[in-house]
Please model this.
Amino acid sequence: MEPDAQLVQRCLRGEGLAWEELVRRHARRVYNLCCRFTGNSSEAEDLSQEVFLRIYRTLASYRTAYGGFPTWLTSVTRNLLIDHYRRTRHDRVTDSLEDVMPKVEEKHSPVRTPDKAALASELSAQVQSALSRLSPDLREAVILRDLQGLEYNEIQEVLSVPQGTVKSRINRGRIELARVLEEMGLRPE
Amino acid sequence: MTWTCVQIEERLSDYLDGLLPDAEQREFRAHVDACPQCAPLLAQVAHVIGRLHTLEPEPAPTALVSKILDQTLGPRKAKHDWFGWLPMLWQPRFAMGTVTVLATLLIIFQATGVRRSDITAASLNPVNIFHSADRHAHLAFARGVKFVNDLRVVYEIQSRLQPANNPAPNSSEPPVPSEQKSPNESQRDHSAIGNFTFVASLLTDASTRSPR
Model:
């Protein structure tokens, strides 16, 4: 597989096929990050388009010294998500926990015998709901670490904060998430 | 060193990610094993992280890549594949239909006497097709008119000749010698000559009236 840095160089030479390959390679990752952060697939799709539009316009500013292309892409995505969060903070109506609890209990009904895919889907919905209750700082740290699988130093690059802050945010985010999920009924067997 | 619950909470992720030195790892474990508050917290966080790692990434919408490419590279032209319809010919339904149509055309050509050598590229010109159809229609109409006229003449002739050819036989009268013709017989001869003259005039008339 051709390295991302090489594809970027070909893009800068005006090769549309190289850009298409970059988009196909990273679209799912960017979409997932947006989806987990916003909790809304439609918003995530719009934001993913915005991310790639921004990447396309600023591709010439990418230097390999910044780290890998995925790290740079994640950093751009994260900045855009934070901008989006600040822009829509006043419009957003946060659901109360009571609104979520009945749905979760309903899903835990012993009458249902869901298969593996349904269980995964249920867990995904629970995690999504719990993530939306975390502050943006903690949410993005947990998403980058535990859902996107980034290393601490990569997260440090993406968030542009000291490593101690990264560790602290990940730790507090995990504990907060665990407490919210416990309230929603997700406990170790 | 004896760790407090606050310290345990602060180092929870370090412990779970294996970032603590061995000595601290042991002290952490010792506190958690003895603490009724920290043990369930550690278990719950470990459980949640484990579940997070099992989550599959959500599939991106199918149109996402196309939308991104349209926004960045501009709307792309649809690829024109002139021979893209060829695989359709291999479908059994289409092949059956084609064979049926060809067989029907073959039967029609055989029945109408059209030979393949008669069909040229010019024959397929719509103007030529129209002229040919028009000519054939007129010829068919003229033949029909002529046939009807001829029939009328034949019936006229038949009706005129009927009394002359089939005289009413009279067995009571004795046969008359040919030298001595009766006045009735000579009148009948005159009538036959008149009939022939009339037929001749009718044929002339019919021939002048009949179309080409």
Observations:
- The CA atoms of residues 52 and 151 of chain A lie 23 Å apart.
- The interface with chain B takes residues 16, 19-20, 23-24, 27-29, 31-32, 35, 41, 45, 48-49, 52-53, 56, 120, 123-124, 127, 142, 146-147, 167-168, 170-171, 174-175, 177-179, 181-182, 186-188 of chain A (CB under 8 Å).
- The first helix of chain A runs from residue 4 to 12.
- DSSP finds nine helices and no strands in chain A.
